[in-house]
Amino acid sequence: MSFEQDIKNLRLNKKLTQHELADMIHVSRQTISAWENGKNYPSLDVLRELSNLFDVSFEKIIFGEETMTTQQQSIAKTIDKDLSMKIKYKKITIALGSIFIILILWLVTLTVGYYKGIDGIDRFNPFLQYKVGYTKMPSNKTVDPRNSKTDGRWTKWFSDNEMGTEWTKLNLSTGLNPGVNDPYVMAYHKGSYVKVARIVPGNSVSTVMKSNVSAINKLVNSKNIDNLSLNMSPNETLKNKIHFNKAIQEIVVK
User: What is the C-alpha separation between 62 and 170, in angstroms, rounded?
Assistant: First the structure.
């Protein structure tokens, strides 16, 4: 018999309608009709599905008979091997695609975490390095852990290098000043994640770093930014930034 007659007989023997068979192998009813009318032929992977569904050999589905000639056996083996390789490659492609998607999502998560200042993400970001940043310590009222509004946590810009080209806005808790004169805070951090912070006297901080801290504080607090050489566009603001990578230099006010 021909394939179109065989597939129709197999369907009828299973007491399936064209629509029911189509649903089972995920094709349209029109596709089943085209097969049974000899207008089309299923792909190899669909033939394998039909073989499993009707519990007949792959050879029977392809050639319409169980006993095959040598030539037919050779063709069947080649088709079966090609189909197996196709299934294998499909699984490999899906696996590689899944790994690629996971990698992209991971990189996106790290990037969003960095630019949003999410310390829990920055902590495990392998692309970030630890830095030592400095800032002027706020008043005891601000850092007091008994402050019900903040629980002693405060946010301030830290200068991460003496060149004044790397800045990070950190949110952290240090506790009250134990009596240090001219207190500064030194933070060992990776992105927005602060591993440890210490209160240090101003005389232990370099003059250049102090100048950097003074410049960023004036930029944040002053309404007249003409007193600073910012290397920023007129409309640029630090309010919604977490990281800043431009030089901020204090100049003499005339």
Answer: 69
Report the predicted TM-score, pTM, of the whole model to 2 decimal places. Answer: 0.64
Q: What angle do CA 33, 39, 42 make, to 5 degrees?
A: 75
CA nearest to 7, candidates 44, 62, 80: 62
Q: What is the pLDDT along the chain (254 residues), one digit of tens a residue?
A: 577 788 888 889 888 999 999 999 888 999 989 888 888 788 777 887 888 888 887 667 766 655 445 545 555 566 566 667 777 888 899 999 999 999 999 999 999 999 999 999 999 999 999 999 999 999 988 899 887 788 889 999 999 999 989 999 999 999 999 999 999 999 999 999 999 999 999 999 999 999 999 988 888 876 655 444 455 566 667 778 899 888 876 554 43
CB atoms within 10 A of CB 172: 21
For residue 73, what are its two tokens? 């056996």
- CA distances to 16, 28, 35, 49 from 19, rounded to whole Å, are 8, 7, 13, 16
Rg (CA), the chain: 35
- Domains of the chain by start residue, with CATH: 3-67 (1.10.260.40), 131-250 (2.40.50)
